[in-house]
UniProtKB/TrEMBL annotation:
This is Uncharacterized protein. The lineage of its organism: Bacteria, Bacillati, Actinomycetota, Actinomycetes, Micromonosporales. The keyword Transmembrane applies. It comes from Actinoplanes oblitus. Residues 1-30 form the signal peptide. Keywords: Membrane, Signal, Transmembrane, Transmembrane helix. The chain crosses the membrane at residues 54-77.
């Protein structure tokens, strides 16, 4: 049980660090850069004739690849730790 708690705390710390390292600076940059006005203007100018399915499909596919890569790295690290013992 102690191994599970140790593993869970390390994983939580890594995810928290990743979120703080990536999301907080991006949010601060977007808030101070006037990006919100550009996004609102782009949404108003967008035409309804073309479909937007391709963007969501490619974004979802990219997200799946990133999640799969993270899971693969975690599995490889955990297996290499078991072999050392």
């Amino acid at each position: 049980m102690a191994d599970v708690v140790k593993w869970w705390s390390r994983l939580t710390a890594a995810l928290t660090g990743a979120v703080l390292a990536l999301v907080v600076p991006a949010h601060a940059w977007a808030a101070s850069n006037g990006v919100d006005d550009v996004m609102i203007e782009a949404a108003r100018r967008r035409t309804r004739s073309r479909g937007g399915f391709g963007f969501f499909f490619v974004g979802g596919l990219c997200c799946l690849f990133v999640v799969a890569a993270v899971v693969l790295v975690v599995l490889l690290i955990s297996r290499s730790r078991k072999r050392r013992r």
